[in-house]
Design brief:
Structural class: alpha/beta
CATH superfamily: P-loop containing nucleotide triphosphate hydrolases
Strand order of the largest sheet: 2-3-1-4-5-6
Number of strands: 6
Largest sheet: 6 strands, mixed
Order of helices and strands: EHEEEHEHEH
Radius of gyration: 15 Å
CATH class: Alpha Beta
Shape: globular
CATH architecture: 3-Layer(aba) Sandwich
Helix content: 25-40%
Amino acid sequence: MAIIQKKICLLGEFAVGKTSLIRRYVEDKFSDKYLSSIGVKVSRKNVDLGDDTIRLLIWDLAGGEDYTQSSYLMGAAGALLVCDVTRADTLTAVVTYEKQLKAINPSATFVLVANKMDLLNDPQLANDALHNVLPATIPLYYTSAKTGQNVEQAFLALAQQLRNA
């Protein structure tokens, strides 16, 4: 059994739920209290994929940053690009983050996460907008860190891409 260690980042604007997604995935917990991330926090989780184990080093980066001159993205093999379904402006930001990581690592893999589906009563992001903003090869998951909806599946999809990369 091979153990493959990969650095991944969660990239998105402030308050899209990056920290909550990580907490739900790693600890299976959720808190309604919003605490803005400062800098970076690293979590770890092993994902068993048949004969291989992917050890994810999950970097939770502060939102609203320009990472073109930052070392935070160095060594990242992939990212969850996170937007908030109730805030359309957060979708355009993920395009910028995808380009910033691609400039550092052209072979990086991505999963687009449309978070906060539990607040669906007023979504601003149309289905077409989500599918047209990034290449069709990037998987899309509608998630809720609060309920746990599709959180595990989104991280698993990224881990599978990293194993096959």
